[in-house]
Structures are given as structure tokens and as C-alpha cells.
Amino acid sequence: MTEKILQHKHCSICGKAIPVDETFCSDECKEKWGAMVKKRKMMMYIMYGMIAVFIVLILFGGGL
Ligand SMILES: [Zn+2]
């Protein structure tokens, strides 16, 4: 009756209430998060790659 969740947070994916020591409510949300992080990382790598190509183009294109 007097049971009360003093501390809790919400799942980063679906917003469900979960214990503080948990990050996601289920493996499904964990997977979704993983896929999102992977996608973000990939985008960052692509951006870095583009910047690298751009620098190479400037160095070799402008120098010659
Ligand atoms: Zn969730």
C-alpha cells in the first residue's frame, strides 16, 4: 500500500519508467538504441572521411 518508487528514470527509447540502475526497459529498446548509436557513428565517420578528402583535394589541387 505504501509502496512507492522513490527513484526511477525513463527508458531512453520509449519513455517507460524503469529502475535507476537500468538504461532501457527491454532488450528491444536496447537494440534500437544500439542501432541509433551505430548509425550516428557511421555518419560521423562519413563526415570525417569527406573532410579528409576535401583537405587532400585542397592540398594537391591547389599545390599543383
Ligand atoms: Zn523502452
List the helices and strands and how they pair.
Layout: E1 8-10, E2 17-19, H1 27-63
Antiparallel strand pairs: 1-2
This protein binds zinc ion.
Zinc ion is lined by residues 11, 13-14, 16, 24-26, 29.
Count of alpha/pi helices: 1
Mean pLDDT: 90
Strand content: 5-15%
User: What is the H/E order?
Assistant: EEH
How many strand elements?
A: 2
Sum up the overall morphology in one term: rod-shaped
Strand order of the largest sheet: 1-2
Q: Which structural class best describes the helix and strand composition?
A: mainly alpha
The quaternary state of the protein chains shown equals single chain
**Distinct small-molecule ligands in the complex:** zinc ion
Summarize the main sheet: 2 strands, antiparallel
Helix content: 55-70%
Query: Roughly how many Å apart are the termini?
Result: 80 Å
Number of domains: 1
Q: Spans with pLDDT under 50 lasting ≥5 residues?
A: none
Could you tell me the radius of gyration in angstroms?
A: 22 Å
